[in-house]
Amino acid sequence: MCRTECPWQAHALQRMTAAPPGPRPAPNKMEWTQRPDCGPGAEILGDLRNRNVLELGCGAGHNLAHLAVRRGAAATGVDRADRQIQRCRAHYGHFSTTTFVAQGALAYLHATQTTFDAVYSVFGAIGLTDPAPLLEAAAARLTGGGLLAFSIPHPRRRGRRPANRACLDHIGLPDRHRLPVLRWELTAERWCKTLTAAGLAVTDARDISAPEGGQWPTTLLILARKP
């Protein structure tokens, strides 16, 4: 569980203070980046009707609600910030095919007995948690042929040099303050090796750039399947 000073708790609290959460309709599109309509949508996950789907680090639950309502999935979201889960339940708890759990991603994967047809993370737990044990645990909960997909800040964004290790980064809050987080800044090649070691076969790794272009990509999106 996130402590009170956790950046994600602070982010959720500021959002709830600015606009008290209430029921919302499910979004029309799934987003893999931090910019609307930049990059692919839920179609890259395939047909999810009546399939079990898990999001690691679900934030406010927007993507999960889309998959549950617009794509027909039985969708579970976990987040270690309980205030984020409060937002999820307030926004989308009225949909019968959504479940939200306040727990760390790795702890949840070790505790659950459910298997999933797809596990994904959008700027969520993957990239913010030691990759090897997390990816191994996710692979163990995937069905045969199941898909793992995740997007992360591109390791070469703004001309950065990938460190292939955990590095200090910052997230911006709604009030424009910035709080530190630990982020694993790995190249696509290192991610692919880590996924292979976890027993998954990488099927796609793509760079996504912001709509206004620029010299450097902003998001790295990776897909892998369990044989």
Q: Hey, roughly how much beta strand do the residues contain?
A: 25-35%
Low-confidence stretches: none
- Which structural class matches the secondary elements? alpha/beta
| Beta strand count | 9
Rg, Å, rounded: 16 Å
Q: How many strands, which pairing sense, and closed or not: the largest β-sheet?
A: 7 strands, mixed
User: What's the total helix number?
Assistant: 6
Q: SSE string, helix = H, strand = E? A: HEHEHEHEHEEEHEE
The geometry reads as globular
Q: Trace the largest sheet across and list its strands.
A: 3-2-1-4-5-9-8
Cα(first) to Cα(last) distance is 32 Å
Estimate the helix proportion, in percent: 25-40%
The overall pLDDT average reads 93
Please render the helix and strand layout as text:
Blueprint: H1 7-18, E1 52-56, H2 62-69, E2 74-79, H3 82-92, E3 98-102, H4 105-111, E4 116-122, H5 131-141, E5 142-153, E6 165-172, E7 178-185, H6 188-197, E8 201-208, E9 219-225
Parallel strand pairs: 1-2, 1-4, 2-3, 4-5
Antiparallel strand pairs: 5-9, 6-7, 8-9
Helix pairs in contact: 1-3, 4-5, 5-6
Written account of the structure:
With 227 residues, this protein is α/β, with parallel strands linked by helices. It has six helices and nine strands, in the order H-E-H-E-H-E-H-E-H-E-E-E-H-E-E. Strands 3-2-1-4-5-9-8 form a seven-stranded mixed β-sheet, with helices on both faces. Strand 1, helix 2 and strand 2 (74-79) form a beta-alpha-beta unit. It is globular. It starts with 6 loop residues before the first helix and ends with a strand. The model has no long low-confidence stretch (mean pLDDT 93).
